[in-house]
Amino acid sequence: MINTYEKEGKNVKKKRLFKKIYSICIAFLVIGILAACSGQSSSGSSAGSGGTKQYKIVTATTTGAYYPVGGVMASILSEMEGYNFTAEASGGSQENARLIDSEQAQIGFFGADTLYNAYNGHEAFKEKPIKLAGLAQIYSNPFHVVVLKESGITSIADLEGKKVAVGAPGSGTSGKAKLILESYGLIFDENMKAEYLDFAEGSEALIDGNIDAVIISVGLPSGNVQELATSHEIELIGFEPEMTKQIMEQYPYFTETVIPRGTYNGIDKDVTVISAPNEIAVDPDLDEDFVYEVTKMLYETKYKEFVASHASMKDSTLEIAPNTTVPLHPGAERFYKEKGLIE
């Protein structure tokens, strides 16, 4: 006859066995959930309420053109059934590349120079190239070098020994400023002082006399430059023809452009400057059909709304869209082939 203690011992062992089995089941369940989440992350989206897929578009500071264009873009693309897009401010092109690389975003705005450098592992990306795929070229960013009229600065060479606001840390403006100023023999923190300030901060420092010039690479017209030109007499510093040629030979993604007279208050002559195209790039691992639909939505279904998102977008035509600095995403490539824009 089994005594009471033996029965109780057997019951305890059974309970322990059941607990072990339960714990193992829970562990497998958690692993399955984590694997599913990992799968969602690698495809570039996460599921929101009701199974809606979430995508993030990274832009730049709220004062530039990328941010409002990205906002309209997010609104347009959120009309795609089952998807929700959000546009977020960022430090600019360099940060956008790293956000996409780390899967914190799926779509981003870039200056052609940063896109080229990220993809090919140059400059700030020497230690780690970042694979990105082209979606579209949109418009160009003239390189504004702004000084107060009273400064006496009349050329970029005059910036030697001066304090210059070169853009926010990690921004496309700061990347372009470094390359262009180096072409003039101006080296950050050697024979000129680089201050990493966005244009709003730089303008304030310029007015206060804490810096000598402020640089911004932005589409025309720049609201920031307009605001500064309304309250103070400014000058835009142009590029000499021989330097323009030299810079474009060294960096093939740069082009020559003109800021027309009258674009800003007090600027009564055309100013020839260096310019870099702006582009939209995506995570190359995004699904081909998805990127095809995104491209079609922007350049066919809602094209008028897309190009009306900012004054800079007036030059954003379907014809220039496929001319991206990095290889097109297969989904975008398919759309442009259907339109007869590429072979």
Explain this structure.
With 343 residues, the chain is an alpha/beta fold. It folds into two domains: 48-139 and 278-338, Periplasmic binding protein-like II (D-Maltodextrin-Binding Protein, domain 2, 3-Layer(aba) Sandwich); 141-277, Periplasmic binding protein-like II (D-Maltodextrin-Binding Protein, domain 2). It has helices spanning 4-42, 66-77, 93-101, 112-120, 172-183, 199-207, 223-231, 241-250, 288-301, 303-307, 330-338, and strands spanning 46-47, 53-58, 83-88, 107-111, 133-148, 163-165, 193-195, 213-217, 234-236, 255-259, 271-282. Strands 1, 2, 3, 4, 5, 6, 7, 8, 9, 10 and 11 form an eleven-stranded mixed sheet that branches. α9 (288-301) crosses α11 (330-338). The radius of gyration is 26 Å and the shape is globular. It starts with a helix and ends in a 5-residue tail after the last helix.
